[in-house]
Amino acid sequence: MRNRNNIIAIIIFIMFVTTAFAGHHIGAANNEQTLEKLARGMENEGVIIKEWSLYTKKSVDLESMEKVKQMTEQFRDYTWAYEEKGDIYKAIGTKVNKEKKVTEKLQILSTLKNHHSGSYILYELKGKTGQTSWNEMNRYFKKQAFHIFQEELTIFSCITGEIGDMMEGVLLTKSNDLLKQFNALPIEQLNEEKFVSISAKTEEWNESIPTNKGSMNVQIALRSAGLGDFTTVVVGTPIITSEY
């Protein structure tokens, strides 16, 4: 039941983001700089990059596991795993690119609820630590994504890193320093003892998501593991797509 709920939650999230971003595709020149700007801003604040990802998705017309499997036949260079639970169909393909030291993941999700189907293809490129050429990773991702979707779609960029242990109350200060790196103004924020999350808007990127308090296109989250441990820092645009 928990896995089923998780999959439904993912699909609902994708549907929300798809609606929110209707008509807000990122231009090629803009994309070339996004991941690098995130990385440089974090490094300027002393964040050690541990992981990064690029992600995009598209709705498709699939209503059965048979159709899902037919779709995977087009991508035989991936290793596929299949899952079917009730009206939920899921296929996950993975491919390790040793040359570029990245992992590629292609997911096909389909669910039928109240006689309405929601099906999506999600493509993700993920790497560890920093890169000597962030723009090269952007170009590679865009090339692979276009091969899969045959069109340019909104790209989600996300970087996770670590910074030395911080005293209580410093998380918010550091998050504000990161906002300055991206010339961003806060829209909404959650400030707890060991966790800070800020949604903000910057003119560095054109795309945005509407919220109750205004549009946003960058998220920053810091979580402290406790005294003596590293603090995890996650930054994403237009939103964070990884767990934080």
TrEMBL record:
Top-rank lineage group of the source organism: Bacteria
Pfam families assigned to the protein according to its UniProt record, in alphabetical order: DUF1779
Keywords assigned: Signal
Transmembrane segment boundaries: none
Presence of keyword Signal: yes
Gene3D superfamilies: YwmB-like (3.30.360.40)
Nucleotidyltransferase listed as a keyword: no
Signal peptide (residue range): 1-22
Designated name of the protein: YwmB family TATA-box binding protein
